[in-house]
């Protein structure tokens, strides 16, 4: 393994985390003081109701687009004014709408905010990561439930790792649209709603019961609204903060009785403590929470005010702060290694190639100026580049491309998986063509970055062609603006004729991408 230059583990950052949810769009701007603490600078929230804006063809409407543009432009202006790095994720409504990808592309064009559409499992993971930052649950087996507008995330975690995580299409906006068609509420609709929820919860909750948990945490607007309603119904003064407070099963039944008595929307809006903006969707959200409470026999819930947005913040810090080897807190590197092990990659060779690739990336920063995210994409691609050998040697780069492109790796977005897959696709044979699958969908900047990473990976692979780790160190030197040399140092007095031959072939792609000549020199 190569000795790489040390990297900073932590660097203070100002980050704006934006959650484009199915009900609302939230932004949290913070100063990250350390890897586990932050100071809130600003927060914004607007109700957009994307889940309610999907038409009969499964597409988000132009009205929803225009409303989202207005909201996101305002948030972008605030974040830019505070000089914050923006990271935005989209959840249930965006990942399920047929035009979700196109919708996000239009938002980027109009607002400059690049939204990552995350999977349900990734959303659950980020919720768990966020809750961990706000509550002392590290040593406990904890059930976390987040009832959103389009989906409900259910996680059981312990010691920072998810033992079980899933996302169900049981969001309060979605269920309201599907089952609550009358005002006042109809008994038949309510019975159908409860049956539907129970039917979909029971198989998932049976797995939760099998695993077991010590405490239950609720982290959504739904549970906070129900707690607020209970306080109003019992004439209890508002809490200084709901974070860390509890909602008992008895209080849930109290809230349910009150909501079922207030059959009309007008009556629900007048209930003490209930936010009138949630009066139309609170019944569906409460039914989900009460069903989970009853099925699992939960006596009380702990309320968390930290969830997805805080998960985004700390995941961003983990991405920027963990390097080649990763550590136990780096879910992305664990995901990569776990995926590689499924395909029985040769780890010694994989680590050696990864070392070369990352070392080259670092030494060539003066030429490519790519942000650190690309270092991680390259690292992941280098480690996984031979997964396709699981099927056979012929075309194994294409097999690996398919495997990664269609995988679901915790910690990575769909687009990031496509980028990693594409880098691997071109680690051998030819370099990309403009009309190639997936590659053609990237914008010019991403295509350029993929070319750079692929050229580096090709050279790294050639330098361990014999798979014996003969080369100990590689040093890049800039001889002039149009010429570089690559000094290759041996681990011992080994013969590296094969590696030098292969490197001479692969350097052509490198020279084309970096627009310079490359001389490979053996130094003893």
Automatic annotation (TrEMBL):
* The keyword Nuclease appears for this protein: no
Alphabetically sorted, this entry's keywords are: Hydrolase
Matching SUPFAM superfamilies: Actin-like ATPase domain, HD-domain/PDEase-like
* Entries under InterPro entries matching the protein: ATPase_NBD, GppA/Ppx_hydrolase, Ppx_GppA_C, Ppx_GppA_N, PyroPPase_GppA_Ppx
Ranges of residues in domain Ppx/GppA phosphatase N-terminal: 30-319
* Coiled-coil zones: none
Q: Which CDD domains match?
A: ASKHA_NBD_PPX_GppA
Q: Which GO terms describe its molecular function?
A: pyrophosphatase activity
- Where is the Ppx/GppA phosphatase C-terminal domain positioned along the sequence? 331-488
Has UniProt tagged this entry with the keyword Hydrolase? yes
Name-wise, this protein is: HD domain-containing protein
């Amino acid at each position: 393994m190569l000795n790489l230059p040390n990297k900073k583990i932590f660097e203070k950052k100002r980050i704006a985390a934006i959650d484009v949810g199915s009900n609302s769009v939230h932004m949290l701007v913070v100063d990250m003081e350390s890897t586990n603490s932050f100071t809130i600078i600003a927060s914004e929230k607007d109700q957009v109701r994307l889940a309610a804006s999907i038409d009969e063809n499964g597409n988000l409407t132009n009205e929803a687009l225009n409303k989202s543009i207005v909201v996101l432009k305002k948030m972008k202006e605030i974040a830019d004014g505070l000089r914050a790095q923006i990271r935005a994720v989209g959840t249930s409504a965006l990942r399920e709408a047929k035009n979700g990808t196109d919708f996000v592309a239009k938002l980027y064009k109009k607002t400059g905010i690049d939204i990552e559409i995350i999977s349900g499992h990734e959303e659950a993971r980020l919720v768990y990561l966020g809750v961990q930052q706000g509550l002392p649950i590290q040593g406990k087996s904890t059930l976390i439930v987040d009832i959103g507008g389009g989906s409900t995330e259910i996680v059981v975690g312990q010691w920072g790792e998810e033992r079980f995580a899933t996302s169900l299409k049981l969001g309060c906006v979605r269920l309201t649209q599907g089952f609550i068609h009358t005002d006042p509420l109809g008994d038949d609709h309510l019975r159908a709603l409860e049956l539907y929820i129970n039917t979909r919860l029971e198989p998932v909750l049976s797995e939760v019961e099998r695993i077991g948990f010590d405490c239950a945490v609720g982290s959504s607007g739904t549970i906070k609204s129900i707690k607020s309603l209970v306080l109003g119904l019992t004439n209890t003064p508002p809490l200084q903060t709901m974070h860390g407070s509890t909602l008992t099963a008895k209080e849930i039944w109290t809230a349910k009785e009150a909501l079922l008595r207030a059959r009309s929307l007008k009556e629900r809006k007048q209930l003490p403590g209930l936010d009138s903006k949630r009066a139309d969707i609170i019944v569906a959200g409460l039914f989900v929470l009460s069903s989970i409470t009853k099925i699992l026999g939960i006596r009380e819930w702990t309320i968390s005010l930290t969830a997805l947005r805080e998960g985004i913040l700390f995941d961003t810090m983990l991405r920027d702060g963990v390097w080649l080897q990763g550590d136990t807190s780096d879910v992305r590197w664990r995901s990569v290694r776990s995926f590689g092990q499924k395909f029985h990659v040769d780890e010694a060779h994989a680590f050696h190639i990864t070392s070369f690739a990352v070392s080259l990336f670092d030494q060539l920063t003066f030429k490519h100026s790519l942000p650190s995210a690309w270092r991680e994409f390259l690292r992941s691609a280098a480690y996984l580049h031979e997964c396709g050998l699981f099927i056979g040697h012929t075309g194994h780069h294409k097999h690996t491309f398919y495997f990664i492109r269609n995988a679901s790796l915790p910690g990575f977005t769909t687009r990031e998986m496509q980028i990693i897959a594409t880098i691997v696709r071109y680690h051998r044979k030819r370099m990309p063509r403009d009309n190639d699958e997936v590659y053609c969908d990237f914008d010019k900047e991403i295509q350029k970055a993929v070319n750079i990473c692929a050229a580096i990976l090709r050279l790294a692979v050639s330098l361990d062609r014999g798979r014996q780790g003969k080369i100990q160190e590689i040093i890049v030197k800039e001889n002039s603006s149009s010429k570089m040399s690559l000094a290759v140092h041996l681990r011992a007095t080994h013969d590296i004729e094969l590696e030098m031959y292969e490197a001479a072939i692969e350097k052509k792609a490198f020279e084309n991408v970096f627009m310079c000549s490359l001389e490979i020199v053996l130094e003893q």
